[in-house]
């Protein structure tokens, strides 16, 4: 919990530093021009909302925390505080880095006198934006990601392997900044640096459909498909589909350039084979 608070404080300190230097000349160095540069990067792309599940191809700058409540097969129940989210920054015009704030999890198993609890593995992500046009110039975006999960978690939750996750993400919108419709989609593979037969290699496709034009309301529905290469799921030759209706509220102004966003989604598996039951997902974000 203290690590997540530290991440939030760090994000707010960056905002404060940029605000303090606003109004000074633009030749004062890299950090003084941080918000000039990041605002330019955001202006060159569509202004859609980041979906609840699908990682947006847009470059975003925010502090984000997700919370999940997930029943699992055999009566187990997982509670996740953090969702492997954290501090998102735009250091250059076409890049974004995400530094995960450590995620805390609790797993309850029937007929056990205690809950398994501990930290999940650390998550890092680099985005590079290949193409982008805002609503006035085409309303589209194409981005590549490289994620890395480090085996830093508690014994109960770590994979004990570094996992690399290359991703291609794209989006297309129709309409103006004030109202319209957009589709955001990603395809990724999570590749461990060992023990693939035990961990598996999931190929994941997520797509979000969003309708906007209600100022602070962003209704959406997301679809997810997972196919496993290697790992326990492949012995059953099974794939998983999910659907996640959700509603996001924001961006509410709260202080200077800082905004607040909150969203709630309900993820439901729609295939007979699934590694989870219905899942509630709460997302809280502070874009800046």
Question: What do these coordinates show?
Answer:
The chain has one domain (37-287): Beta Barrel (Porin), CATH 2.40.160.40. The longest helix has 20 residues, at 2-21. The chain is mainly β and 288 residues long. It contains three helices and 16 strands. Helices cover 12% and strands 52% of the residues.
User: Number of helix segments?
Assistant: 3
Q: Which CATH C-level class is it?
A: Mainly Beta
The figure for the number of domains is 1
The beta-strand count equals 16
Q: Which structural class is indicated by helix and strand composition? A: mainly beta
- At the fold tier of CATH, the topology name is Porin
CATH superfamily: monomeric porin ompg
Amino- and carboxy-terminal Cα gap: 22 Å
Q: Which residues form runs of ≥5 with pLDDT under 50? A: 1-10, 15-26
Q: How big is the Rg?
A: 19 Å
Strand proportion, as a percent range, falls in: over 45%
Q: Please tell me the CATH architecture by its name.
A: Beta Barrel
Shape: globular
Largest sheet: 12 strands, antiparallel, barrel
Order of helices and strands: HHEEEEEEEEEEEHEEEEE
Helix content: 10-25%
Major β-sheet strand ordering: 1-3-4-7-8-9-10-12-13-14-15-16
**Mean pLDDT across residues:** 89
